[in-house]
Every structure is written in structure tokens, then in C-alpha cells.
Specification:
By secondary structure, the chain is α/β, with parallel strands linked by helices. It is 44% helix and 18% strand. It folds into two domains: 192 residues, 2-enoyl-CoA Hydratase, Chain A, domain 1 (Alpha-Beta Complex); 247 residues, Alpha-Beta Complex (2-enoyl-CoA Hydratase, Chain A, domain 1). Strands 11, 14, 16, 17, 18, 20, 21 and 22 form an eight-stranded mixed sheet that branches. It starts with 8 loop residues before the first helix and ends in a 7-residue tail after the last strand.
Amino acid sequence: MDSRKQPNILVRLWLGFWRGLTAFRMAVFNILFLLVLALIVGVIFGGSDRLVIKDETTLVLSPKGMIVEEYSGTPLERMINEALGQEVPETRLRDVLATLEQAANDNRISQVLIDTDELWGLGTGVMQDIDQAFARFRESGKSVIAYGGFMSQGQYFLASQADEIWLNHDGMVLLEGFGRYRNYYREGLDKLGVEVNLFKTGDYKSVMEPWERSDMSEADREASEYFLGGLWQDYLESVAMNRGLPVDVLVDLTHNFTEYFERAEGSASRMALDNNLVDRLVSRPELRAELAQRGAPDDNGDFRRIGYRQFVGADLPVRKPGEHVGVIVAEGMIVEGDQPPGTIGDESTSRLIRQAARDDSIKAVVFRVNSGGGSAFASEVIRRELQALRDAGKPVVVSMGNVAASGGYWVAMGADEVWAYPTTITGSIGVIGFIPTFEESLARIGIHTDGVGTTPLAGALRIDRALSDELRNLLDTMINATYREFLALVAEHREMDVEAVHEVAQGRVWTGAQALERGLLDHLGNLDDAVASAARIAGLGEDYRVSYVEPELKSWQQLFVGMGAKALVTAGFEPGNSLVNWLPRETRASLMRDLRLVTEATRSGRPGVIAHCLCDAPM
């Protein structure tokens, strides 16, 4: 028996605390040591690990997730998320286009394989860019083969660029058409006792309908059917041309899918083959053997390949000297404050505009917008920054991506010219105000709010009180004044009468082609067309370069991005689980999008005026 006296309780607590602190300190130092070690290894061996491409190599174009204008989040955030297995699958459009351009001129690349299996979708706007990029690539005479299992219409559009489409024996091509379906919350909110206070302008401004209705309004149905019909017709014509099929054949297939499926005795792959949607049915082993025969085998007998991410090179190209057209990407919801890429913050985006203004090598700017809008206040801040850039003598051209509507259209009024795809979703000229209150919800559990104030507006913005008549009148006046400001801006910059603008406004959404007919745009074309126009306005001639204006990483950020974050995984960090992960992905995305819009509208503590359409491209 040990007769030694045990320490008292305070000493034992102190020793336990100190041991825990020591373990934590050592864990932190171990993480830092692993990161520094990764940096040292990269410096020592990075130079010798250069990519070597042999002749007769197959370029594998396998985009992941959504095709976007820019990655979401900062490079440091993306690096950490990748290490933790939480990265958002995204592929930049500019990387796809650069890959095809580079591969066309590289004699070591003999053919291209499009692998569609990890692609989630692409917007209707960028179809034109992809169409033109593949058309230029085919001039090189190199073959393009597309392969996949299940092909949705976004995946199939990309596959239709190939000379041949090969489908897995158990695969499927599903062209389901474009739809615009939303969750409507009114009945559920009534059960919860939530009072929805909505102020809007225009019969077609439907962004907040789900919070005040249980179904789609007739005005929203009319507008949606019109612009979706235009987008779908454009899709059918593009795919039919790529496949050498009459449009009527695709229309018949999509309207009588079940009948064709029964004819193929329940085989979706056979149905696709019989109707010339695909050229061959092959397994992956058969695919690898065929590509090795057409190109060259590697040391393991597989086909010699290189992924497009390795092939296209570094994310940030070397800045070449000369006169530049700067491209500023504005993608995501427009909100106030300093925001990471993937969200348009008035402060962060304005900083990029001023950065372009200070750069003497940038002679013109293309403002690339891919946004359904957001805060009207933030939209006006950005528009004025673009106007100031023009006043400083640098031309500004807006290039609209998949969607540039509501606030995304508002910011375009600061440009010399506005370009859009025929399939860009644009317009939605209108504003709303939205304040939910929860006085009834709280009353149901016995919580009530009462008190006094020195003015009619004192405490009027509390969400636990019903909106007063004074506040309702104030918000209604504010919304209508903002709408008149929006109309006046459009009228001034589009050289239209205010009443003429009102006729095509009222929150109604148009395709790019429809908007051009109504005087809301200057030209139809892609980003390259907008860049060429900006160079022309600036008088740059043919000898100019294009560079993206992006936030500069701080030195410590460059350090961590350069050496990677795989060491975080070894330190025990595991991906977290969201409370709503059990919901279907589409429902979860819709719910989070709607909630974020409400959050952004109310987070500043003052009445928010929203210019948003929630009308993203439906591919």
C-alpha cells in the first residue's frame, strides 16, 4: 500500500489543467511543424516535379460540380476545405476555354475525352462560349469523344460538342426540359404565427412570393413560361445542330419519353442509341482500350492521358507587359460589406474597381456579371464606382453571364455598353422590401412585447412587434422611391422614356434576346466579344492583353496556399455534418438560398430594399 500523501484537490485540478494545456500546445506546434515541413519539401522537390507530356496523349476534360465564373471563397478557404473534404465542386469557365485553346495548338495532344460524370450542370448563358470554343478546337483536326453514365441535359449539352458520344451500357440520357419550381411557405408560416410584411413594385416581381403565397401567381407563371420557352428552344437548336438532328426529333423525344422508353423495352441506353442521341454503348474497360488504340498506351497498358487541371497550368497566369483589358468578375448575391469571391460585396467589389483604376496598364475594364441581384444599396454603390471609373477615362463594358437581373442589371447602368448572351436571364427591373415579424409566434408560447417610445418609430423595427402604420407607410414610400430611381437610371442610360421602361420592367424577367428587342441591351455576344468591344472603345487596336483583376493574397496567405493543408487532416479535423443534410440537394439548396436572402435583407438592422429575382439559369 502506497502511504504517500495525495495532493489536495486544488493541486490536482491545477495539474490536470496544465497537462491539458501542454497537450493542446504540443498539438498546435505539431500542426505548424507539419505545415512548415510541407513547405520545405515543396521548395526542395517542387522544381524537379515538372509536368512532362508525351506525344499521342489524350486530354481528359472532366469538369466537376458547376461551371462558374470564379471559385467560391478565398484561395486559403478553398485549400482548407479541400483538405477537410468539404470543398464545393466547381470548375471555372475560363479554365475550360483556356484548356481547349491550348490543346488545339499542342502537338502532343492527339485527342480529347469529355468525361461528364462529375459535372452537376452549367448555365444557359455559357453554352455559347462552350459552343464557340469547341468549334475553334475542331479546326485543329483532333477528335473529341464524350463518355458518361447518366447524362442530364447539362451534361448532354457538353457531350454534344464531341464527334462521338459513348454511353455506358447501363447509362441514360434524360432531357427533362427547363422548369422553375419553388417551395412556398405561406401555410407553414401561418401555422407558426409568422407575419410576412412584403412591399414590392411591379406585377412580376415575384422573388418573395413563396413567403406570402402557397402557389405561383398567374403573373409569375406567365413571365416564367415566356422566358423558359425561349431558353429551351435555344437549347434544343444548339444540341440538334451539334448532333446533326432535326429539332422536331428532340421535341418529340422529350414530349413522349415514356413511349420511346417502352419501345426500347425499358433500356434507357438502348433508347438513346436507337434515337441517335449517342453513337455507341461501351463500358469503361472498353473505353480505355479504344482510347489507347486511337492514341497511345501508357506504361500500364492504359491510354496515355493528362487531366485538364494539370494541363492548363497554374490558376494565376503570369502577367505579361503591355496594354490590358481588365476583367472584373462579379458573381453571386449582391450584399453589403467585404465579401469573398462567389459573393458580390459592395466594399470588396468596389476595391477591385479602384484597383483597376489605379493600374496604368489597364486601359479598359469588362465587368463580368453573373448575379440575380441582392441589396439595392450595394448595387448602387457598385454602379457609382463603375461610373467613377468611366469618368476617370477608362471605358467600362458589362458582359452578362448566365444571369444578370434585378441588382445584377442595376450595376450594368454604370457601363458604356452592355453585352449579354441570347440566353442570359436579365431584366427583373423592380425592388421589394421584406420584414417578417414574430409577435404571434411568441404569443403562442406566452411571450408578449409591450412598452413605450418617444416617437412613432421608436422600436418599430423590432421583429417581436407588429409593423405600425407609420412604418408601413415609410417602407411603402421607400420601395416606390427606389423603383422610380431604378426606372430613371435605366431610362437615362438606355435613352428610353421612363414610361417605356416601366412597360418592360415591373420585375419581369427576359432572355438576352428578348431584352435586346426591348432596348435593355446593346449587343448579343460572349465575354470575348465584350473584351474586343472594350479594347475598341479604348483605341487599343489588335495588340492588347486580357488580365483578370483579382484580390491580391497577403504573404502569409500565399505561404499557406502554396504548401497545402493536408496536414490539418492528420491533426484530427473531420468534416462536419449539416443539420439539413438529410434533405434532398435541390430542396436544401432552395431553402438555404431563400433563407439567405431573408437574412441579408434584415441583417443590417435597418429596412432593407432588395433588388433580386431568384431566377438563376435552370440547367
